Amino acid sequence: MMNSSEWVLKSILNRYPENYRESLQRFLPETTRERLDAMPTSEVETDIEELPLLERIHWSWLLPAFETLTLREQKLFLSALSPLSKENLCRELKIKTIPNEELSQIVKEFAVQTLEENLTGEPVQLLPVYFLPPTPIASMLRLDKKQLVQLIDALSLNDLASELRQIVETKILKKIYSFLSEEEKKSLKKAANTKQPFTAMRLPLEKWDGTEKSFRLLLHKRGLARLGAALSTQHPDFIWYISHQLDIGRGKTLAKLVESEAARGASQPIISQIEDLLKEIA
Questions:
Q1: Measured between alpha carbons, how far is 14 from 241 in angstroms, rounded to an integer?
Q2: Rounded to a whole number, what is the largest CA-CA distance in the chain?
Q3: Distance separating alpha carbons of residues 149 and 131, to the nearest angstrom
Q4: Positive or negative CA dihedral for 59, 65, 66, 67?
Q5: Gap between the Cα atoms of 147 and 58, Å rounded
Q6: How far apart are alpha carbons 282 and 277 in whole angstroms?
Q7: What tens digit of pLDDT does each residue of 187-229 get?
Q8: CB burial of residue 77 (10 Å; 0-12, 13-18, 19+)
Q9: Is the dihedral of CA 240, 242, 245, 250 positive or negative?
């Protein structure tokens, strides 16, 4: 695993002209210089927007912290958040009037820091987005929750393509195709003609109740498993950001799937699939 502090150092040094960079590197131990030279240079997605942490994550990750506070404390911390997070948290906490208290800068900074430390530990040690090691799927950091869910569902069509080969009953096939959009049917046809690198779990359609809702849920779980496989070889902080862009339920499930040893061998082919899907979403 890449050393985070050395990667940040390399990223900073790369911002300087080569002759100046070489002069600075002379002060480093030879072993450190060798490791820095061996690290890749980021050539992708260097302009990802560095949003405040609480604006980058899905609001639902803040809910457990708010549930431990008194009503007065909840309103104070809510006043430090963006309007969207504030509105959704108020709904979940059953606070009828959305707080709009004007906080002093120091109080707002305290509230934000407290919530960030609750999420990441004390002190906050996440790499800023623009210091993350290079990855071909870095543009996932641009996606909001809705777009990430779209990507997950698109990945799941690869599992559906594999499963449909086992189904011989025309009635079931017709029902499944009736649930798919024209775009999904095109993607399914493409997936059917592609060798699949990852089929860790069958779609249990034999236990399916025939409804579109449960069908979509089955697919979504397989898409999450594929995304987990892709992320299993990525930097831990990149995984943290992606899982926290999803709602807390999906994000926690994804974090567990990333830990699956069985998934690691399939990582690279699925990363390639994600690269193609990111182009379509963009």
A1: 24
A2: 72
A3: 25
A4: positive
A5: 13
A6: 9
A7: 999 888 877 665 556 777 777 888 999 999 999 999 999 999 9
A8: buried
A9: negative
